[in-house]
Amino acid sequence: MSIDRNRAVQRALDLADESPLDAATIAVAEQLTRKDNLTLEEAVDALKNNQIAELAGFLTETKTCKELEIPCDTSGVDHRQMVEWEVDPQDYCVAHEIALLAHMTERRRENLD
Asked: What is the pTM of this model?
């Protein structure tokens, strides 16, 4: 998985009517699928496991941006959360990236106001 964070945050900022989490979910799904202008429903469907979006929301609420900046690799995932959320290591890292991008988007929106 390779997400261009700068491009994803810019795309999320363009989705001003969406929450930072929803905008980040759409931006990541668009990069992973190489499709443009996805709706939130299409983005969640494209992730192929709706638990990814749910886990991303949980991580956004429970972890700080600084905690999420630690790279997610398959050896550093929280195995208890993986089992609880029914995701594999790759899906966990996608959720982790969405959560980080949601924080980054929120921070950038606050700076624009």
From this structure: 0.93
